[in-house]
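REQUEST ID: PR-0412
SUBMITTED BY: lab tech R.K.
PRIORITY: routine
TASK: structure prediction, single protein chain
INPUT:
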Amino acid sequence: MTELAFAPVPGVRLGTAAAGIKRSDRDDVLLMEVAPGGSVAAVFTRNAFCAAPVRVAREHLTHAPRWLLVNSGNANAGTGERGMADALRSCEAVAALTGGAGVQVLPFSTGVIGEYLPVDRIEAALPFALASLDENAWGRAARAIMTTDTRPKLVSRSVEVSGRRLTITGIAKGAGMIHPNMATMLSFIATDARIAQPVLQACLERVADDTFNCITVDGDTSTNDACVLVASGVSSGSELAVGSPDLQRFEAALAAVCGDLAEAIVRDGEGATKLMRIRVEEAASAAEARAVGLTIAHSPLVKTAFFASDPNWGRILAAVGRAGVNELDIDRVGVWLNDMAIVSAGARSPDYTEEAGQAVMQQSEITVRVALGRGQAVQTVLTCDLSYDYVRINADYRT
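STATUS: complete
OUTPUT:
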């Protein structure tokens, strides 16, 4: 097994264990421990049927969390009051072993919806996860949270602020049921920086909006999505303050980590064979650009055309036209596949040929660029194609 490159984060330890929730041949429980005095920020799914662990984690976030408990193989969603009781019970199990309080534990689950959480198995595995806590366990952690992922997702970066070097390391899971509406997947990111919780929260919300909220695989927002950012605070030096150049440099590095994790999710999209960047330019606002990008990215007709390497540019044009842009002047719209113009002045470009279009469509990474001719705003959305394997994977998901 190839080891993933990462930098440990001082003040953050991770431990994994096998609870046998869905499979018996791999770790499926992750425990993350944060040094006393650290800060924790999180963003959660906006799905109305949010899972029990999401509801509990939201409530516990205000109680200075020290531990994150994650399980794969079972979502504990659609499980009613018993699901809430099970999520709380798992938090109390961590507290009993660590000497902390249940409200200092944030629970997270991912997997099949509608089945009760096997808390007994998680409780039995917790001592092993606790015993294995290690700053160097990020690789094992990335694997423990996987479901239909074909590979773990782990990214590390460092940034220098005021003469000291800070580390940012993060993991994510996600391959299907991926559609931005908060931060669409599970992701856990840590740094040794000293940042107050409100500042950390605002930083995460900004970054998630421009990274995880700009990806889509299949247009389905999960019941369990969450993204957590932990700042252990053990780094030397002063606290990163609002408006300071140090915080700006830190946020830029965090955005790079989240951007890499977001792209890794799309690259690993269920059944995906191609990565597409939908770049919308000359929009009246960032929200307008995002709406157009997501409309293109969500279109099954566009996605299947990319899978077939079919330069059916009319599907892209139709998606732009139904994206809800008020008073769109179609005569000012241009569309490109990579650097090749396919639409100019709202119609087929005179230089475009089907042969040239197909040559681009056969590539594994493609940029669709759309200019709306309405302003200066720009937004990029990442997506993938829709293949036969996506149907097979999801048809067989519970068997």
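NOTES: DSSP finds eleven helices and 15 strands in the chain.
REVIEWED BY: pending
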